[in-house]
Amino acid sequence: MFNTFEQIIDEARSGGKQRIAIAAAGDADVLEAVKLAIGIDLADFTLFGDEAVIRKLAADIGLDLARVEVVDETGLAMSALKAVQYVSSGNAGTLMKGLIGTTDFLRAVLDKEVGLRTGSLISHVAVIKSDKFDRFFYLTDGAMNIAPTLDQKVQIINNAVKVAHALGNDNPKVACLAAVETVNPDMPATIDASLLAKMSDRKQIKGCVVDGPFGLDNAVSAESAKHKGVSGPVAGQADILMCPEINTGNVIYKALSYFANVECGAVISGARAPIVLTSRADSPRTKLLSMATAATVAKNS
Asked: What is the pTM for the complete model shown?
């Protein structure tokens, strides 16, 4: 089981590098991450976008494009569609979003003819490493699904479990988060959490152990769980943090990014190939770790 991003990077580089296709790649921050990736021989790249812009930006940041394939396409929507088709045809194992709106990018991802749809929900999984813990946390979903139904939460869990499995965690512990760790009829998140836990008990959700509801504290901290009298196989030992809706996940992700000493790589799961969809505010390092995470998921799925 991988416990550090260095291990994930090593896995992505081993046994033949993955190829990453980037849609609308004419973005300095994205190309900076590509430069970092090439510097450690992480992956091969095919960049879709305005070739003149890509080459100008690459020259500005000192990115040598000699080892990079560039496909000239000035239209943003068409560059996304071509990148998606490139991945769906098996020419690359991972897709990445560049300088294009998320809505337009996802429209290409879900295109009926060349897209990466599977018929299942797609969801965001942030892989987080804190120096306070000896394991990864998988935070989901803070970017895609606004107010998931119970059935959608099952799919979100399944998507996160696939990522955890690809990173070597064969039986991740899933904590369904809420404001409290007891079922309250006035708090729908706690009811959904209890139902998801029972579904896990009856093997309706496989490849993991699901329990809840949990407060964030007694999901991740054994000491907090013991202090509050919260027990069970997930209490204080959670790997996957299942958020009740997008606001919770987004705030946790950004709070960790800005207030805590954590590293993060994120991937969209549930499509035919892993997808890197980072925020413009994410650092080149975060983009690099997201590339490495997605490449490893593609390799091990």
From this structure: 0.95
